[in-house]
Amino acid sequence: MEHVLKAIRERRLDSVGAAYAVVAWVIVQGASIALPAFDAPAWVMRWLIVASFAGFPAALAVAWVLLAPDHVEARRTVRRDWVLLGGAALMLLASLGHLAISWSTRQDQPHVQRPHASAIQTATVAVLPFANLSGDPERRYFSDGISEQLISELARQPDLRVAARTSSFALAEQKMDVQAIARRLNVRAVVDGSVREYGDSVRITAELINAGDGFQIWSETYDRKLTDILALQDEIARAISTALAHRLLGRAPSPVIAVNHPAIDPKAYRLFLQGQDFLAKRTPDGERRAAELFDQVVKLAPGFADGYAALGYSRAVMAMNQGLPEQIEPAMAALKKALELDRSNTSALVAHATLSIMRWEWSVAIDELARVKSLHPDTAQVWHAMATLYGFMGLPEQALRASRNAVTRDPLSYIDRYNIAAYLVALGRYQEGIAAAKDALAIVPDHPDSLLMLCRAELGLGHVDAARGYLDRLTALSPKQPIFQQIACKYRVDIVSGKVREARKFADAIAENGPVDGINATDFVSAYRMLGDYRTAMMWAEKSYDRREPWMMPEAYTRDLGFEMYQTPEWKAFEQKPYFRQWLAVRARIEKELPA
Question: What class is the 120-249 domain?
Protein backbone atom coordinates (compact mmCIF):
# COMPACT_ATOMS: atom_id res chain seq x y z
CA MET A 1 0.00 0.00 0.00
CA GLU A 2 2.99 2.33 0.53
CA HIS A 3 3.70 2.11 -3.21
CA VAL A 4 0.12 3.10 -4.00
CA LEU A 5 0.23 6.12 -1.69
CA LYS A 6 3.56 7.19 -3.24
CA ALA A 7 2.08 6.83 -6.74
CA ILE A 8 -0.95 8.93 -5.72
CA ARG A 9 1.33 11.70 -4.55
CA GLU A 10 3.47 11.49 -7.69
CA ARG A 11 0.39 11.78 -9.92
CA ARG A 12 -1.10 14.55 -7.76
CA LEU A 13 -4.39 12.64 -7.45
CA ASP A 14 -5.12 14.38 -4.16
CA SER A 15 -5.10 17.76 -5.95
CA VAL A 16 -7.16 16.35 -8.83
CA GLY A 17 -9.76 14.97 -6.39
CA ALA A 18 -10.05 18.26 -4.52
CA ALA A 19 -10.35 20.25 -7.75
CA TYR A 20 -13.00 17.86 -9.09
CA ALA A 21 -15.05 18.18 -5.89
CA VAL A 22 -15.02 21.99 -6.09
CA VAL A 23 -15.99 22.06 -9.79
CA ALA A 24 -18.76 19.49 -9.27
CA TRP A 25 -20.15 21.45 -6.33
CA VAL A 26 -20.21 24.67 -8.39
CA ILE A 27 -21.99 22.91 -11.28
CA VAL A 28 -24.66 21.37 -9.03
CA GLN A 29 -25.28 24.67 -7.24
CA GLY A 30 -25.55 26.53 -10.53
CA ALA A 31 -27.92 23.94 -11.93
CA SER A 32 -30.18 24.18 -8.87
CA ILE A 33 -30.71 27.85 -9.78
CA ALA A 34 -30.73 27.65 -13.57
CA LEU A 35 -32.79 24.53 -14.24
CA PRO A 36 -36.02 25.74 -12.58
CA ALA A 37 -35.87 28.90 -14.66
CA PHE A 38 -36.19 26.75 -17.80
CA ASP A 39 -38.91 24.50 -16.29
CA ALA A 40 -36.55 21.52 -16.47
CA PRO A 41 -38.01 18.25 -15.12
CA ALA A 42 -37.01 17.30 -11.58
CA TRP A 43 -35.20 14.15 -12.76
CA VAL A 44 -32.56 16.27 -14.58
CA MET A 45 -31.26 17.63 -11.30
CA ARG A 46 -31.30 14.21 -9.64
CA TRP A 47 -29.26 12.57 -12.38
CA LEU A 48 -26.83 15.49 -12.50
CA ILE A 49 -26.01 14.75 -8.87
CA VAL A 50 -25.63 11.03 -9.67
CA ALA A 51 -23.34 11.87 -12.59
CA SER A 52 -21.20 14.03 -10.31
CA PHE A 53 -20.62 11.07 -8.00
CA ALA A 54 -20.02 8.71 -10.89
CA GLY A 55 -17.52 11.08 -12.53
CA PHE A 56 -15.24 11.23 -9.50
CA PRO A 57 -13.57 7.78 -9.91
CA ALA A 58 -13.51 8.31 -13.70
CA ALA A 59 -11.61 11.59 -13.25
CA LEU A 60 -9.08 9.89 -10.98
CA ALA A 61 -8.60 7.08 -13.52
CA VAL A 62 -7.94 9.57 -16.34
CA ALA A 63 -5.50 11.49 -14.13
CA TRP A 64 -3.71 8.25 -13.27
CA VAL A 65 -3.00 7.65 -16.94
CA LEU A 66 -2.25 11.19 -18.09
CA LEU A 67 -0.08 12.16 -15.11
CA ALA A 68 1.88 8.92 -14.91
CA PRO A 69 5.70 9.36 -14.39
CA ASP A 70 8.17 7.38 -16.49
CA HIS A 71 8.91 4.78 -13.85
CA VAL A 72 7.96 1.44 -15.34
CA GLU A 73 9.14 -0.51 -12.32
CA ALA A 74 7.04 1.65 -10.02
CA ARG A 75 3.98 0.96 -12.14
CA ARG A 76 4.64 -2.78 -12.04
CA THR A 77 5.10 -2.69 -8.26
CA VAL A 78 1.81 -0.96 -7.56
CA ARG A 79 -0.23 -2.78 -10.21
CA ARG A 80 -1.52 -5.46 -7.82
CA ASP A 81 -2.49 -2.98 -5.11
CA TRP A 82 -4.12 -0.70 -7.65
CA VAL A 83 -6.26 -3.53 -9.01
CA LEU A 84 -7.57 -4.00 -5.48
CA LEU A 85 -8.32 -0.29 -5.13
CA GLY A 86 -9.93 -0.20 -8.57
CA GLY A 87 -12.21 -3.05 -7.63
CA ALA A 88 -13.16 -1.24 -4.46
CA ALA A 89 -13.86 1.93 -6.43
CA LEU A 90 -16.11 0.04 -8.86
CA MET A 91 -18.00 -1.49 -5.96
CA LEU A 92 -18.40 1.99 -4.44
CA LEU A 93 -19.63 3.39 -7.76
CA ALA A 94 -22.16 0.55 -8.11
CA SER A 95 -23.38 1.16 -4.57
CA LEU A 96 -23.76 4.88 -5.24
CA GLY A 97 -25.67 4.18 -8.44
CA HIS A 98 -27.98 1.75 -6.68
CA LEU A 99 -28.52 4.26 -3.89
CA ALA A 100 -29.30 7.04 -6.33
CA ILE A 101 -31.79 4.93 -8.28
CA SER A 102 -33.48 3.77 -5.09
CA TRP A 103 -33.64 7.33 -3.79
CA SER A 104 -35.09 8.58 -7.06
CA THR A 105 -37.74 5.84 -7.01
CA ARG A 106 -38.68 6.60 -3.41
CA GLN A 107 -38.98 10.28 -4.21
CA ASP A 108 -41.66 9.43 -6.77
CA GLN A 109 -43.71 7.42 -4.27
CA PRO A 110 -45.90 8.91 -1.50
CA HIS A 111 -44.77 8.15 2.04
CA VAL A 112 -46.75 9.14 5.08
CA GLN A 113 -43.70 9.95 7.18
CA ARG A 114 -42.28 12.59 4.83
CA PRO A 115 -44.22 15.86 5.10
CA HIS A 116 -43.44 16.98 1.55
CA ALA A 117 -43.54 13.56 -0.12
CA SER A 118 -47.05 14.08 -1.48
CA ALA A 119 -45.80 17.19 -3.25
CA ILE A 120 -43.75 14.96 -5.57
CA GLN A 121 -46.98 13.63 -7.06
CA THR A 122 -49.26 16.49 -5.98
CA ALA A 123 -48.06 20.08 -5.82
CA THR A 124 -49.05 22.00 -2.68
CA VAL A 125 -50.20 25.60 -2.91
CA ALA A 126 -51.84 28.31 -0.81
CA VAL A 127 -53.88 31.27 -2.09
CA LEU A 128 -53.52 34.51 -0.15
CA PRO A 129 -56.30 37.13 -0.08
CA PHE A 130 -55.88 39.32 -3.15
CA ALA A 131 -55.28 43.03 -2.58
CA ASN A 132 -58.32 45.27 -2.99
CA LEU A 133 -57.35 48.04 -5.44
CA SER A 134 -60.84 49.48 -5.84
CA GLY A 135 -60.08 52.39 -3.51
CA ASP A 136 -63.04 51.49 -1.27
CA PRO A 137 -62.20 49.40 1.84
CA GLU A 138 -65.84 48.31 2.00
CA ARG A 139 -65.34 46.41 -1.25
CA ARG A 140 -62.75 44.09 0.25
CA TYR A 141 -65.39 41.36 0.18
CA PHE A 142 -64.97 41.35 -3.61
CA SER A 143 -61.21 40.76 -3.67
CA ASP A 144 -61.46 38.24 -0.82
CA GLY A 145 -64.28 36.50 -2.64
CA ILE A 146 -62.23 36.24 -5.85
CA SER A 147 -59.44 34.62 -3.83
CA GLU A 148 -61.84 32.18 -2.20
CA GLN A 149 -63.40 31.22 -5.54
CA LEU A 150 -59.91 30.65 -6.93
CA ILE A 151 -59.22 28.27 -4.04
CA SER A 152 -62.34 26.32 -5.03
CA GLU A 153 -61.30 26.21 -8.67
CA LEU A 154 -57.76 25.09 -7.82
CA ALA A 155 -59.14 22.32 -5.58
CA ARG A 156 -60.65 20.79 -8.72
CA GLN A 157 -57.20 20.32 -10.24
CA PRO A 158 -56.10 16.71 -9.57
CA ASP A 159 -52.40 17.64 -9.35
CA LEU A 160 -52.88 20.22 -6.60
CA ARG A 161 -53.44 20.16 -2.87
CA VAL A 162 -54.70 23.57 -1.82
CA ALA A 163 -54.50 25.05 1.67
CA ALA A 164 -57.88 26.02 3.08
CA ARG A 165 -59.10 29.60 3.20
CA THR A 166 -59.23 29.74 7.01
CA SER A 167 -55.50 29.29 7.46
CA SER A 168 -54.15 31.15 4.43
CA PHE A 169 -56.27 34.24 5.10
CA ALA A 170 -55.51 34.22 8.84
CA LEU A 171 -51.74 34.04 8.28
CA ALA A 172 -51.86 36.79 5.66
CA GLU A 173 -53.55 39.08 8.21
CA GLN A 174 -50.58 38.51 10.54
CA LYS A 175 -48.37 40.29 7.98
CA MET A 176 -46.08 37.26 7.61
CA ASP A 177 -43.88 37.02 4.52
CA VAL A 178 -44.63 34.50 1.80
CA GLN A 179 -41.96 32.00 2.81
CA ALA A 180 -43.04 32.05 6.47
CA ILE A 181 -46.67 31.47 5.44
CA ALA A 182 -45.62 28.59 3.21
CA ARG A 183 -43.72 26.95 6.07
CA ARG A 184 -46.72 27.24 8.40
CA LEU A 185 -49.06 25.79 5.78
CA ASN A 186 -46.57 23.17 4.54
CA VAL A 187 -46.93 24.26 0.90
CA ARG A 188 -44.33 24.71 -1.81
CA ALA A 189 -45.93 27.59 -3.69
CA VAL A 190 -48.11 30.61 -2.93
CA VAL A 191 -50.57 32.51 -5.12
CA ASP A 192 -50.86 36.25 -4.53
CA GLY A 193 -52.43 39.04 -6.53
CA SER A 194 -54.77 42.01 -6.72
CA VAL A 195 -58.27 42.82 -7.92
CA ARG A 196 -59.49 46.12 -9.38
CA GLU A 197 -63.20 46.40 -10.10
CA TYR A 198 -64.37 49.21 -12.40
CA GLY A 199 -67.96 49.36 -13.60
CA ASP A 200 -68.91 45.98 -14.99
CA SER A 201 -65.29 45.03 -15.66
CA VAL A 202 -62.52 43.61 -13.51
CA ARG A 203 -58.74 43.45 -13.70
CA ILE A 204 -57.11 40.55 -11.90
CA THR A 205 -53.35 40.27 -11.52
CA ALA A 206 -52.09 36.94 -10.19
CA GLU A 207 -48.61 35.65 -9.50
CA LEU A 208 -47.30 32.28 -8.44
CA ILE A 209 -44.30 32.32 -6.07
CA ASN A 210 -41.89 29.49 -5.29
CA ALA A 211 -41.91 29.30 -1.50
CA GLY A 212 -38.46 27.73 -1.45
CA ASP A 213 -36.58 30.73 -2.84
CA GLY A 214 -39.22 33.47 -3.02
CA PHE A 215 -38.86 33.83 -6.81
CA GLN A 216 -41.78 34.23 -9.16
CA ILE A 217 -42.77 31.16 -11.18
CA TRP A 218 -45.59 32.68 -13.22
CA SER A 219 -47.65 35.88 -13.43
CA GLU A 220 -50.42 37.24 -15.60
CA THR A 221 -52.90 40.13 -15.75
CA TYR A 222 -56.47 39.62 -16.97
CA ASP A 223 -59.01 42.26 -18.03
CA ARG A 224 -62.52 40.87 -18.45
CA LYS A 225 -66.18 41.72 -18.15
CA LEU A 226 -67.75 40.62 -14.86
CA THR A 227 -70.21 38.53 -16.84
CA ASP A 228 -67.26 36.25 -17.74
CA ILE A 229 -65.82 36.04 -14.21
CA LEU A 230 -66.65 32.35 -13.72
CA ALA A 231 -64.79 31.29 -16.87
CA LEU A 232 -61.92 33.61 -15.95
CA GLN A 233 -61.47 31.98 -12.53
CA ASP A 234 -61.27 28.59 -14.21
CA GLU A 235 -58.74 29.95 -16.72
CA ILE A 236 -56.50 31.32 -13.96
CA ALA A 237 -56.71 28.05 -12.02
CA ARG A 238 -55.65 26.06 -15.09
CA ALA A 239 -52.73 28.39 -15.76
CA ILE A 240 -51.52 28.04 -12.17
CA SER A 241 -51.96 24.27 -12.27
CA THR A 242 -49.94 24.05 -15.50
CA ALA A 243 -47.11 26.18 -14.11
CA LEU A 244 -46.94 24.17 -10.89
CA ALA A 245 -47.08 20.83 -12.67
CA HIS A 246 -44.16 21.73 -14.92
CA ARG A 247 -42.10 23.27 -12.12
CA LEU A 248 -42.75 20.87 -9.23
CA LEU A 249 -43.82 17.67 -10.96
CA GLY A 250 -41.71 17.81 -14.10
CA ARG A 251 -44.62 16.97 -16.38
CA ALA A 252 -47.82 18.29 -17.91
CA PRO A 253 -50.84 18.63 -15.60
CA SER A 254 -53.44 15.88 -15.41
CA PRO A 255 -56.66 16.49 -17.35
CA VAL A 256 -59.57 18.14 -15.53
CA ILE A 257 -63.25 17.43 -16.12
CA ALA A 258 -64.50 20.30 -18.27
CA VAL A 259 -67.12 22.55 -16.68
CA ASN A 260 -69.37 24.87 -18.64
CA HIS A 261 -69.17 28.28 -16.96
CA PRO A 262 -72.17 30.39 -18.04
CA ALA A 263 -72.20 34.16 -18.03
CA ILE A 264 -73.50 35.64 -14.79
CA ASP A 265 -75.30 38.84 -13.86
CA PRO A 266 -72.62 41.12 -12.29
CA LYS A 267 -75.03 42.15 -9.53
CA ALA A 268 -75.72 38.50 -8.70
CA TYR A 269 -72.01 37.79 -8.50
CA ARG A 270 -71.38 40.74 -6.17
CA LEU A 271 -74.23 39.60 -3.91
CA PHE A 272 -72.79 36.08 -3.99
CA LEU A 273 -69.38 37.30 -2.79
CA GLN A 274 -71.02 39.43 -0.09
CA GLY A 275 -72.94 36.38 1.10
CA GLN A 276 -69.75 34.33 1.24
CA ASP A 277 -68.16 37.06 3.33
CA PHE A 278 -71.02 37.03 5.87
CA LEU A 279 -71.07 33.22 5.99
CA ALA A 280 -67.32 33.10 6.71
CA LYS A 281 -67.93 35.02 9.96
CA ARG A 282 -69.76 31.95 11.36
CA THR A 283 -72.03 34.04 13.59
CA PRO A 284 -75.84 33.60 13.80
CA ASP A 285 -76.37 37.05 12.28
CA GLY A 286 -73.79 36.39 9.57
CA GLU A 287 -75.41 33.08 8.64
CA ARG A 288 -78.86 34.70 8.46
CA ARG A 289 -77.67 37.62 6.32
CA ALA A 290 -75.77 35.24 4.04
CA ALA A 291 -78.92 33.19 3.41
CA GLU A 292 -80.86 36.37 2.58
CA LEU A 293 -78.22 37.43 0.04
CA PHE A 294 -78.05 33.97 -1.55
CA ASP A 295 -81.84 34.05 -1.94
CA GLN A 296 -81.38 37.15 -4.09
CA VAL A 297 -78.53 35.52 -6.02
CA VAL A 298 -80.55 32.54 -7.22
CA LYS A 299 -83.39 34.83 -8.32
CA LEU A 300 -81.02 36.93 -10.42
CA ALA A 301 -78.96 33.95 -11.67
CA PRO A 302 -81.20 30.83 -11.75
CA GLY A 303 -78.57 28.85 -13.66
CA PHE A 304 -75.76 29.51 -11.14
CA ALA A 305 -75.13 26.21 -9.34
CA ASP A 306 -72.79 27.75 -6.77
CA GLY A 307 -75.52 30.20 -5.79
CA TYR A 308 -77.95 27.39 -4.94
CA ALA A 309 -75.17 25.44 -3.21
CA ALA A 310 -74.29 28.46 -1.05
CA LEU A 311 -77.96 29.03 -0.21
CA GLY A 312 -78.43 25.41 0.82
CA TYR A 313 -75.16 25.33 2.74
CA SER A 314 -75.97 28.52 4.68
CA ARG A 315 -79.36 27.14 5.70
CA ALA A 316 -77.78 23.80 6.62
CA VAL A 317 -75.30 25.63 8.86
CA MET A 318 -78.20 27.45 10.53
CA ALA A 319 -79.98 24.15 11.13
CA MET A 320 -76.86 22.59 12.64
CA ASN A 321 -75.34 25.47 14.59
CA GLN A 322 -78.47 27.30 15.70
CA GLY A 323 -80.76 24.33 16.21
CA LEU A 324 -83.27 25.51 13.59
CA PRO A 325 -84.85 22.36 12.10
CA GLU A 326 -87.23 24.49 10.00
CA GLN A 327 -84.20 25.36 7.83
CA ILE A 328 -83.64 21.74 6.79
CA GLU A 329 -86.30 21.44 4.07
CA PRO A 330 -85.53 24.80 2.37
CA ALA A 331 -81.86 23.85 2.49
CA MET A 332 -82.53 20.46 0.90
CA ALA A 333 -84.56 22.08 -1.90
CA ALA A 334 -81.74 24.51 -2.72
CA LEU A 335 -79.10 21.77 -2.65
CA LYS A 336 -81.11 19.50 -4.93
CA LYS A 337 -81.37 22.35 -7.44
CA ALA A 338 -77.61 22.93 -7.20
CA LEU A 339 -76.92 19.27 -7.91
CA GLU A 340 -79.31 19.29 -10.86
CA LEU A 341 -77.20 22.08 -12.35
CA ASP A 342 -73.83 20.61 -11.34
CA ARG A 343 -73.70 17.01 -10.11
CA SER A 344 -70.10 17.46 -8.97
CA ASN A 345 -70.58 20.60 -6.87
CA THR A 346 -68.54 19.88 -3.74
CA SER A 347 -70.28 22.35 -1.41
CA ALA A 348 -73.68 21.06 -2.40
CA LEU A 349 -72.66 17.42 -2.00
CA VAL A 350 -71.15 18.02 1.44
CA ALA A 351 -74.13 20.02 2.73
CA HIS A 352 -76.60 17.53 1.24
CA ALA A 353 -74.79 14.66 2.95
CA THR A 354 -74.82 16.47 6.32
CA LEU A 355 -78.53 17.18 6.09
CA SER A 356 -79.16 13.59 5.03
CA ILE A 357 -77.55 12.46 8.29
CA MET A 358 -79.83 14.79 10.23
CA ARG A 359 -82.81 13.25 8.43
CA TRP A 360 -81.56 9.71 9.18
CA GLU A 361 -80.92 9.06 5.48
CA TRP A 362 -77.53 7.54 6.17
CA SER A 363 -77.11 5.62 2.91
CA VAL A 364 -77.66 8.82 0.94
CA ALA A 365 -74.99 10.52 3.04
CA ILE A 366 -72.50 7.72 2.32
CA ASP A 367 -73.10 7.90 -1.43
CA GLU A 368 -72.73 11.69 -1.47
CA LEU A 369 -69.51 11.73 0.55
CA ALA A 370 -68.04 8.82 -1.39
CA ARG A 371 -68.58 10.88 -4.54
CA VAL A 372 -67.00 13.95 -2.94
CA LYS A 373 -64.02 11.89 -1.83
CA SER A 374 -63.53 10.54 -5.37
CA LEU A 375 -63.67 14.05 -6.85
CA HIS A 376 -61.59 15.92 -4.28
CA PRO A 377 -59.97 13.35 -2.00
CA ASP A 378 -57.44 15.57 -0.25
CA THR A 379 -59.01 18.86 0.84
CA ALA A 380 -59.78 20.16 4.31
CA GLN A 381 -63.47 20.46 3.41
CA VAL A 382 -63.71 16.80 2.43
CA TRP A 383 -61.84 15.54 5.50
CA HIS A 384 -64.04 17.71 7.73
CA ALA A 385 -67.14 16.26 6.08
CA MET A 386 -65.82 12.73 6.54
CA ALA A 387 -65.13 13.43 10.22
CA THR A 388 -68.71 14.66 10.62
CA LEU A 389 -70.05 11.47 9.06
CA TYR A 390 -67.85 9.26 11.25
CA GLY A 391 -68.86 11.22 14.34
CA PHE A 392 -72.59 10.84 13.69
CA MET A 393 -72.08 7.15 13.00
CA GLY A 394 -70.36 6.46 16.33
CA LEU A 395 -66.87 5.93 14.85
CA PRO A 396 -64.67 8.23 16.95
CA GLU A 397 -61.37 6.61 15.92
CA GLN A 398 -62.09 7.24 12.24
CA ALA A 399 -63.47 10.71 13.02
CA LEU A 400 -60.26 11.54 14.87
CA ARG A 401 -58.07 10.51 11.94
CA ALA A 402 -60.20 12.48 9.48
CA SER A 403 -60.09 15.58 11.68
CA ARG A 404 -56.32 15.33 11.94
CA ASN A 405 -56.12 15.10 8.14
CA ALA A 406 -58.30 18.22 7.93
CA VAL A 407 -55.98 20.09 10.31
CA THR A 408 -52.88 19.25 8.27
CA ARG A 409 -54.58 20.99 5.34
CA ASP A 410 -56.11 23.79 7.43
CA PRO A 411 -53.87 24.23 10.48
CA LEU A 412 -55.72 27.30 11.81
CA SER A 413 -59.20 25.76 11.65
CA TYR A 414 -60.73 26.13 15.11
CA ILE A 415 -63.57 23.69 14.50
CA ASP A 416 -61.30 20.87 13.33
CA ARG A 417 -58.93 21.31 16.27
CA TYR A 418 -61.90 21.37 18.63
CA ASN A 419 -63.25 18.20 17.01
CA ILE A 420 -59.92 16.47 17.59
CA ALA A 421 -60.28 17.27 21.30
CA ALA A 422 -63.90 16.08 21.33
CA TYR A 423 -63.08 12.75 19.68
CA LEU A 424 -60.12 12.15 21.99
CA VAL A 425 -62.33 12.74 25.03
CA ALA A 426 -64.99 10.48 23.50
CA LEU A 427 -62.33 7.75 23.33
CA GLY A 428 -61.33 8.31 26.94
CA ARG A 429 -57.92 9.72 25.97
CA TYR A 430 -58.29 12.63 28.34
CA GLN A 431 -54.70 13.86 28.58
CA GLU A 432 -54.43 14.09 24.80
CA GLY A 433 -57.85 15.71 24.71
CA ILE A 434 -56.68 18.44 27.08
CA ALA A 435 -53.70 19.24 24.85
CA ALA A 436 -55.92 19.34 21.75
CA ALA A 437 -58.52 21.58 23.42
CA LYS A 438 -55.76 23.99 24.41
CA ASP A 439 -54.60 24.04 20.79
CA ALA A 440 -58.14 25.06 19.81
CA LEU A 441 -58.19 27.76 22.50
CA ALA A 442 -54.96 29.17 21.09
CA ILE A 443 -56.90 29.94 17.90
CA VAL A 444 -60.12 31.20 19.56
CA PRO A 445 -59.36 32.15 23.17
CA ASP A 446 -62.06 31.46 25.79
CA HIS A 447 -64.33 29.66 23.33
CA PRO A 448 -67.01 28.10 25.58
CA ASP A 449 -67.07 24.77 23.72
CA SER A 450 -63.34 24.26 24.29
CA LEU A 451 -63.64 25.26 27.95
CA LEU A 452 -66.44 22.72 28.40
CA MET A 453 -64.31 20.05 26.72
CA LEU A 454 -61.46 20.83 29.10
CA CYS A 455 -63.89 20.56 32.02
CA ARG A 456 -65.00 17.12 30.79
CA ALA A 457 -61.46 15.89 30.25
CA GLU A 458 -60.23 17.01 33.67
CA LEU A 459 -63.20 15.30 35.32
CA GLY A 460 -62.40 12.18 33.31
CA LEU A 461 -58.98 12.23 34.99
CA GLY A 462 -60.59 12.88 38.39
CA HIS A 463 -59.22 16.44 38.59
CA VAL A 464 -62.22 18.20 40.15
CA ASP A 465 -60.33 21.35 41.15
CA ALA A 466 -58.99 21.83 37.62
CA ALA A 467 -62.54 21.37 36.25
CA ARG A 468 -63.79 24.02 38.68
CA GLY A 469 -61.18 26.38 37.25
CA TYR A 470 -62.72 26.00 33.79
CA LEU A 471 -66.18 26.42 35.33
CA ASP A 472 -65.03 29.77 36.72
CA ARG A 473 -63.84 30.83 33.28
CA LEU A 474 -67.18 29.85 31.73
CA THR A 475 -69.05 31.77 34.42
CA ALA A 476 -66.94 34.87 33.73
CA LEU A 477 -68.01 34.81 30.07
CA SER A 478 -71.64 35.43 31.04
CA PRO A 479 -71.92 36.29 34.74
CA LYS A 480 -75.59 37.33 34.62
CA GLN A 481 -77.09 34.72 32.30
CA PRO A 482 -75.65 31.17 32.47
CA ILE A 483 -74.75 29.72 29.09
CA PHE A 484 -75.27 26.08 28.15
CA GLN A 485 -71.58 25.17 28.46
CA GLN A 486 -71.44 26.63 31.97
CA ILE A 487 -74.53 24.67 33.00
CA ALA A 488 -73.14 21.42 31.53
CA CYS A 489 -69.76 21.85 33.25
CA LYS A 490 -71.34 22.63 36.65
CA TYR A 491 -73.67 19.64 36.31
CA ARG A 492 -70.73 17.31 35.74
CA VAL A 493 -68.67 18.87 38.54
CA ASP A 494 -71.58 18.40 40.97
CA ILE A 495 -71.97 14.72 40.08
CA VAL A 496 -68.26 13.89 40.30
CA SER A 497 -67.87 15.83 43.57
CA GLY A 498 -70.80 13.98 45.19
CA LYS A 499 -73.56 16.60 44.88
CA VAL A 500 -75.83 14.12 43.12
CA ARG A 501 -79.04 15.29 44.81
CA GLU A 502 -78.44 18.88 43.73
CA ALA A 503 -77.70 17.75 40.15
CA ARG A 504 -80.85 15.60 40.12
CA LYS A 505 -83.00 18.50 41.26
CA PHE A 506 -81.58 20.70 38.51
CA ALA A 507 -82.14 18.07 35.79
CA ASP A 508 -85.74 17.45 36.90
CA ALA A 509 -86.51 21.18 36.86
CA ILE A 510 -85.37 21.59 33.25
CA ALA A 511 -86.91 18.28 32.12
CA GLU A 512 -90.40 19.47 33.12
CA ASN A 513 -90.47 21.72 30.05
CA GLY A 514 -87.98 19.84 27.89
CA PRO A 515 -86.90 19.57 25.21
CA VAL A 516 -86.31 23.34 25.08
CA ASP A 517 -84.26 25.63 22.87
CA GLY A 518 -80.65 24.53 22.94
CA ILE A 519 -81.38 21.39 24.99
CA ASN A 520 -82.69 18.37 23.10
CA ALA A 521 -83.93 14.94 24.19
CA THR A 522 -80.46 13.42 23.73
CA ASP A 523 -79.10 15.90 26.30
CA PHE A 524 -81.57 14.51 28.84
CA VAL A 525 -80.45 10.97 28.00
CA SER A 526 -76.92 12.04 28.94
CA ALA A 527 -78.05 13.94 32.05
CA TYR A 528 -79.94 11.02 33.61
CA ARG A 529 -77.39 8.47 32.45
CA MET A 530 -74.70 10.37 34.36
CA LEU A 531 -76.92 10.26 37.46
CA GLY A 532 -77.18 6.48 37.12
CA ASP A 533 -80.95 6.73 36.51
CA TYR A 534 -81.01 4.47 33.48
CA ARG A 535 -84.79 4.06 33.55
CA THR A 536 -85.40 7.80 33.05
CA ALA A 537 -82.55 7.98 30.57
CA MET A 538 -84.18 5.24 28.47
CA MET A 539 -87.48 7.15 28.54
CA TRP A 540 -85.71 10.13 27.02
CA ALA A 541 -83.98 7.84 24.52
CA GLU A 542 -87.43 6.86 23.26
CA LYS A 543 -88.30 10.54 22.81
CA SER A 544 -85.02 11.19 21.04
CA TYR A 545 -85.73 8.27 18.69
CA ASP A 546 -89.24 9.54 17.94
CA ARG A 547 -87.84 13.02 17.22
CA ARG A 548 -85.14 11.51 14.97
CA GLU A 549 -82.33 13.31 16.71
CA PRO A 550 -79.06 12.36 14.97
CA TRP A 551 -76.95 12.73 18.14
CA MET A 552 -78.65 9.96 20.16
CA MET A 553 -77.31 6.74 18.63
CA PRO A 554 -73.57 7.63 18.50
CA GLU A 555 -73.72 8.41 22.26
CA ALA A 556 -73.42 4.67 22.85
CA TYR A 557 -69.87 4.80 21.44
CA THR A 558 -68.64 7.67 23.61
CA ARG A 559 -66.70 7.14 26.82
CA ASP A 560 -68.50 9.25 29.42
CA LEU A 561 -70.12 9.22 32.84
CA GLY A 562 -72.71 6.45 32.99
CA PHE A 563 -71.33 4.70 29.92
CA GLU A 564 -72.36 1.38 31.48
CA MET A 565 -75.99 2.03 30.54
CA TYR A 566 -75.19 1.01 26.98
CA GLN A 567 -74.36 -2.50 28.17
CA THR A 568 -77.75 -3.08 29.82
CA PRO A 569 -80.42 -5.44 28.41
CA GLU A 570 -82.77 -2.45 28.07
CA TRP A 571 -80.40 -0.66 25.73
CA LYS A 572 -79.65 -3.83 23.76
CA ALA A 573 -83.39 -4.24 23.22
CA PHE A 574 -83.59 -0.58 22.18
CA GLU A 575 -80.99 -1.24 19.49
CA GLN A 576 -83.44 -3.64 17.81
CA LYS A 577 -85.72 -0.78 16.75
CA PRO A 578 -86.00 -0.57 12.94
CA TYR A 579 -84.15 2.71 12.43
CA PHE A 580 -81.48 1.77 14.94
CA ARG A 581 -80.87 -1.51 13.11
CA GLN A 582 -80.59 0.43 9.84
CA TRP A 583 -78.09 2.78 11.48
CA LEU A 584 -76.00 -0.16 12.73
CA ALA A 585 -76.02 -1.73 9.25
CA VAL A 586 -74.90 1.52 7.63
CA ARG A 587 -72.26 1.95 10.33
CA ALA A 588 -70.82 -1.44 9.40
CA ARG A 589 -70.92 -0.48 5.71
CA ILE A 590 -69.00 2.73 6.41
CA GLU A 591 -66.28 0.85 8.26
CA LYS A 592 -65.89 -1.39 5.21
CA GLU A 593 -66.29 1.10 2.33
CA LEU A 594 -65.06 4.42 3.69
CA PRO A 595 -61.99 3.87 5.88
CA ALA A 596 -60.45 7.06 7.23
Answer: alpha beta
